[in-house]
Amino acid sequence: MLRHGEVYAGIALAIAAGATTALSMVVQHAALTYPGRAMPARLCGRTLCDVNKNAVWMLGLVLYGVGTGVVYSFAGLWIPLSLLACLFLTMLAFNLFFSWYFLGEALTWPKVAGSLIVLLGACMCAIGASVGNPGVPTDFSSDDVAALFAAPLGATYFALLVLSVLSTLGAILVHERTYPLDRVAERPPPAWLESTMAVMYPASLGLDEAVAHLTLRCMNAMLSQCNRGGCSHPIFPATIVMCAVSSVGTVIWLRIVFKRFAVTSALPIEYGAASAADVASGLLFFQEYKSFALWRYPLIVGGVALCLVGIQVGRMAADKAPASELARAITLATVIDPGKPASPSSRGAHQAAPAAQCVPPVCGDGDGDQCEAGGLAPPCSQEPPACSPQTAAGDAQSSLRAEPGAGRPPLRELRQPTRSRRIAPLGA
Predict the structure, then answer these.
(1) Model-wide pTM > 0.90
(2) How far apart are CA 26 and CA 133, in angstroms?
(3) Engineering a disulfide at 270: which of 15, 202, 227, 316 sits with its beta carbon 3.0 to 4.6 angstroms away?
(4) CA distance 198 to 305
């Protein structure tokens, strides 16, 4: 049975793992979506930002390895996986703070309320899984791990988890081949498919991380008993291989997901799926349910449910805009001049022009709908003399890579029209 000091140390390490991982996500997203010299100096310093954005991405990758590998592993040696998963989910609150502090993202009420709900759910899980020291086993020999994989409940759960990862991965690979990110302007996906993939991409990543967490916990538990013969079973090298494959897949998938989708919209889905799967892994695969009294289940399950509710509340603001950053730029460019992308020369002309640009209104087709402004700048007058389609489209493209506070509104202000077929051309 674990001592209280070890449980408290595991809780502190789980929260630290969440904070480190949240910081790594912000760093990697900035490296993937900002040009090298446009990255916020507060995030990486001018020296590092000016060298190469790949160096910043590598820094984020190292932080990710420290958070999800080193700190997470030590926390897992002292607390149950169901408790670790809930505490690790506090990374969403840390991500909200880091995104605001380093990238200048807005602190909207849905995001703040969602983070507070997630923290409340994590506290419920912590109370249910730690108060009274329920004595959940955290050390497993290789024979114990082999028995867990061979148990009907454990084998069924692990097979379903891996099958979920492979099925979503196959669908995403087809989507990447059909609608590659570098050609999305030529052939944008349908709106319903874009919305579906905005959930499937990060959810698939979260399930892959759940496989990595499960196998990592098995590997660490066996390593802690190697001096007592805990690594003698063939399941030990097999677990190492599964952990390595899922971890490498996570690293590759991170770059794909966060290049296509914003952190604030993808991260809650990713770790909502990962945390729910981790709690299920603890209760079902590692059979932690045998150590919990009945009164603990409402707190643990209710805490997980509350975390998922908080995630959805936090996404309410993100759902009002297209999930893909490139799609948002293309949407705005289409509003301004359908079928006529901005040229490099027009983008350069815009960078030298004053920041005050105008965006024509998006109007209906005569059935009584009201017009609304495009959202990037004040609406044009009836006869805008100084606003050309090329210049405004260039503004849409360049604003994606603009540093917050650099004279142009941030990306979050872009809005998609409700029905693209109603877009009125200039001069209409």
Answers:
(1) no
(2) 35
(3) 202
(4) 21
